[in-house]
Design goal:
Blueprint: H1 8-22, E1 32-37, H2 39-42, E2 53-56, E3 68-72, H3 78-81, H4 85-88, E4 89-95, E5 100-106, H5 117-130, E6 136-140, H6 143-151, H7 156-166, H8 170-173, E7 178-181, H9 189-198, E8 204-207, E9 211-216, H10 219-239, H11 250-260
Parallel strand pairs: 7-8
Antiparallel strand pairs: 1-3, 1-6, 2-5, 3-4, 4-5, 6-9, 8-9
Bound molecules: 1,3-dihydroxyacetonephosphate (13P) and zinc ion (ZN).
Amino acid sequence: MKDILTAPFMAEMIRTCTNMYDHGWDERNGGNISLLLNEAEISEYGDVKRALRTIPTGFETPELDGKYFLVTGTGKYFKNVQYAPDVNLGLVKIIDGGKNAQLLWGFADGGKFTSEFPAHMMSHASRLKVNPSNKVIMHCHPTNLLAMTYIHTLDEKAFTRTLWQMCTECIVVFPDGVNVLPWMLCGTNEIGIATAEKMRTARLVVWAQHGLYGAGADLDEAFGLIETAEKAAEIYMKIAHLPLVNTITDEEMHQLEAHFGVKAREGYLS
Ligand code: 13P
Ligand code: ZN
């Protein structure tokens, strides 16, 4: 039986946490990631065969019963994941209709999964209904997107259109746009339910004055989605106070749709 620290998914998770920290998206313990794994992927690793302890979740997600997730720990720093993955990450199996999670590996200092576990698990359930290959929910605090939520209307159509107009490829990368939640108390079931609802129609959900959620089929895809939206927000923050001379027109967006075979969110282009 192999050591789970040699698993490709573990290497990718560690690299992603480090990369997100290096991008400045995850100060201190900011941000959290959950990666859905299937039984075949983890079966060759001997150290995940028995439950170390059971952790109550405080909510229910029957759709996820029996599913395995590699998830970041609450209060843990992304900066440190590479040095002590077994302390900062945990592998859990969802049981009892989502009411409990069995810890199979990790959280070696007695820790537990992120405080945003409700938003993660509920969003997984939501995205899996739209796209059965969705495996990743990723949350972070990207500087420019966060800044944008202080000066831009939070209207989802307007927010999406502004981001699309900032870089040519935005509409190609996130044609479903971004959904936006107003400020809400984080780490609660309520923000979890609201996020999961928003995840039904878009893979990016902004938490105003807090950060961003992204979903994807793998870590690279979720990361790339956030990276693209954050780049657009960065350009917006560089130009928002300047007179706008040029933009990407809706007619040009339609050309992008046709050329790249994507369909922009219904009603978002004229
Ligand atoms: P955790 O340390 O519990 O993952 O919380 C970080 C965070 O970003 C809360 O929104
Ligand atoms: Zn956060």
